[in-house]
Amino acid sequence: MENVLRPLIVLGGSVLLTLAIGWATDRLLRKADERNPETPLWDLLRRGRIPYQLVLCAALLRGSYDHANLLQRHHTGVGRTLTLVLIGSAAWLVIRIAAAVVETSYTRYARAHPDAARVRRVRTQVELIMRVVSAIVIVVASASMLLTFPAMRAAGASLLASAGILGIVAGVAAQSTLSNMFAGLQIAFGDMVRIGDTVVVDGEWGTVEEITLTFLTVRTWDERRITMPVSYFTSKPFENWSRGTPQMTGTVFWHLDHGAPIEAMRERLRDILRQCPAWDGRNYNLYVTDATPNTIQVRALVTAKDADDIWTVRVTVREQMITWLSAEHPYALPRVNTADAVLPPGLTARSVNGPARYPR
Prior knowledge:
Number of helices: 12
Subcellular location: Membrane
GO cellular component, one term: membrane
Structural class: alpha+beta
Order of helices and strands: HHHHHHHHEEEEHEEHEEHH
Pfam families: MS_channel_2nd (PF00924)
Protein name: Mechanosensitive ion channel protein
InterPro entries: LSM_dom_sf (IPR010920), MscS_beta-dom_sf (IPR023408), MscS_channel_2nd (IPR006685)
Helix content: 55-70%
């Protein structure tokens, strides 16, 4: 009877104790989250309840397994399995706790600093730091798991003896990967490009969506994703429209007839911008910038607070100005002139072309 009750008491008690401690901890975190709604720390910590319960259960089972008298023939294998589960769940829990602390720190910083550019820079750094921390925890956990096997501990001495040669070979083989990793750290702490920045890369306009230690993803205006190695941004020029202040100046061009009403167009441009919510009110102007034998080139300068709004302002001004010219001043639109040339006063076609000549 004891051989049956002892395993049930040990295993059942470990599971019940794990569930009880996990439930009590979750209740405490929930109450702390209700009392402190301004910080997301407690709610983020609740996301780690599964690895937390795994750690508790694995630790309790590992500590009480010797007294359970269960599967004695496989005592070593079961004990090693519980140890591996404990190490893996502990690494999972550490990553969740680190993520909660880092996310809380970033949220507080974002609330305290209204500067969007600085917030994006910190967000980029935080995400890369979190990736580095996760990688370190995973590597340490994997090494700890391997060291639980006696064969791996015995092979450790020979591995250390050849570490120099292996390091050189790995460095040569992973040269591009290592350069990308260092480029990722340079981007994160050099403030070259940040998550949320508007960039132009290889003629493609888009927003930086993700930055890792090895690659960077740009989401284009038509919702395509361009994935590029981060070393590209440290070795080649690119446009960052969000660098410094996000305010931008845009241009709108029209090719019109020489008789276009320029002064009336200036007044119409002012009226269009006043009715456009995307215009930031900083500046605007309209000038004739070029002339050809058939048309003139008219350029309008407009301003907006960021790249998205400048696009809206430009298309609005272009569309409404063309509509207004078509309705009010259709003669201003470019056309092919097939009429006879208008001569200056006092001149006739005979005086211009000279006396008529007749063949003899």
